[in-house]
Amino acid sequence: MPDVKHFEPDGVLGIAELLFWRQGVAATGIQDVVAATGLSRSSLYNAFGGKEGLYVGALHRYVEQRSKPMFARLAEDRRGLPAIEDFFHRLVSVRCRGKFAGWGCLVSNAHLENPSGEAKAVLDSHQAGLKAAVQAALETAAELKQLRPGLDLSATAEHLTLLAYAINLRSRAGASPRHLGTAVTAALSPLARDRPSPRKA
User: Which residues have a Cβ under 8 Å from the Cβ of 112 and sit 6 or more positions away?
Assistant: First the structure.
């Protein structure tokens, strides 16, 4: 098996990320990573300190490469409510179609496994980043006079953040894009100053 000095750690984390994402941390053992990577247990322990280190590294990788680009795209989009709507419909599409359909979100899935320590810190950071991106888009919508008067932007951002996590979990349980899209429309329509016609998922 390859020595610890002769493999790329990020490549190993990428494999571990997919295993934890698809199977969950409780159902994924070091032997699964050994089998998937061809590395020895000693190499993995030397590089990552064991399963917990691999898991935390995989969470960080997922957030950096998959979550943060979506957050940045939303926060920087200057269309307001249409940007939020597109974010949610992209999220539904990603969760329900394509290579990773039915996998949910690695971070959302992790909330169900009672994380602690560094893993919990990654989850808390993810939640804060998502809420900040949603709130930035809401602030843009307010500037564009798209929102109904008196809306609490922070509370609304928290509500929509929870909706995103719910979509992630329900998609893993087999919810259809149509049902998830209906929930998105029901959550977003009351925010608008002039309510748009419902958009089909």
Answer: 24, 169
- pLDDT by residue (tens digit) across 20-67? 999 999 999 999 999 999 998 999 999 999 899 999 999 999 999 999
**Distance of alpha carbon 85 from alpha carbon 75, whole angstroms:** 13
Cα separation of the two ends of the chain = 48
Cα 89–Cα 93–Cα 97 angle in degrees, nearest 5: 170
Query: Quick one: the chain helix, strand, coil %, rounded to 5?
Result: 70, 0, 25
Q: Round to whole Å and give the CA distance between 3 and 5.
A: 5
Integer Cα distance of 62 and 106 in angstroms: 7
Query: Which uninterrupted H or E stretch holds 134?
Result: helix 117-143
pTM recorded for the entire structure? 0.90
CATH fold of 4-191, please? Tetracycline Repressor; domain 2 (1.10.357)
Instruction: Map out the domains of the chain as residue ranges.
Output: 4-191
Residues 171, 104 contacting (CB under 8 angstroms): yes
Of the candidates 143, 33, 152, which has an alpha carbon nearest to the alpha carbon of residue 81?
143
